[in-house]
Amino acid sequence: MRIRKADAADLVEIQTLLRANGLPVDDVTGLLIEGFLVAEDTDGSIVGSAGLEPLGSSVLLRSLAVASEIRGTGVARELVARLEENARSLGRLEVWLLTSTAERFFEVVGYERISRGEAPGNVRLCRQFAVLCPSTAACMRKRLLPNSFPYVNERPQSR
Ligand SMILES: CC(C)(COP(=O)(O)OP(=O)(O)OC[C@H]1O[C@@H](n2cnc3c(N)ncnc32)[C@H](O)[C@@H]1OP(=O)(O)O)[C@@H](O)C(=O)NCCC(=O)NCCS
């Protein structure tokens, strides 16, 4: 199993995985999946997906699904960690998401529940929030630390 960036040829397989897991596919296009990662099995089939959708200075984490046969093996944790790295390298340090089914998983990987009203406007207005996810879905956020803290290990010089 390896995790790699999605490409246009993966679109149908990603949509099939999302549908099988009850996740929205209406807006999952070739353009959107440029921000996706996939987990690929040794036979080349796609067994996991997750993506970032840029929303102004924030980012939406979405379309996280792992095939039932390989759940519990850390694939989702790895996909989320890799996407967070990507968000960091884009300089976006707030990751938002909506979930009806995986709130506990996201808590385990460091997300906290926030009321929808507290999400920034560009997040509230995105299609997932406005149209695709039920209003009962939990809204969650993680604040990422920047890539480097140049001074974090430095003590003030004593004179
Ligand atoms: C949620 C989902 C992606 C988790 O995938 P996974 O690969 O099994 O998760 P991992 O193996 O990486 O789990 C990482 C950690 O979260 C925990 N975890 C995973 N799923 C969990 C759940 N449903 N409830 C509570 N904890 C969970 C694991 O125990 C593990 O903890 P540990 O490392 O301390 O042992 C998978 O169950 C799934 O595809 N569900 C259907 C689609 C879905 O609901 N997607 C979310 C849409 S927003």
From TrEMBL:
Molecular function (GO) terms listed? N-acetyltransferase activity
Question: What organism does the UniProt record list as the source?
Answer: Paraburkholderia saeva
Protein name as it appears in the record: N-acetyltransferase domain-containing protein
The protein's UniProt keywords, in alphabetical order, are: Transferase
Tell me, what's a Pfam family for it?
A: Acetyltransf_7
The reply to whether Transferase figures as a keyword in the UniProt entry is yes
**Protein origin, superkingdom:** Bacteria
State the Gene3D superfamilies in the record. 3.40.630.30
Q: Which positions fall inside the N-acetyltransferase domain?
A: 1-145
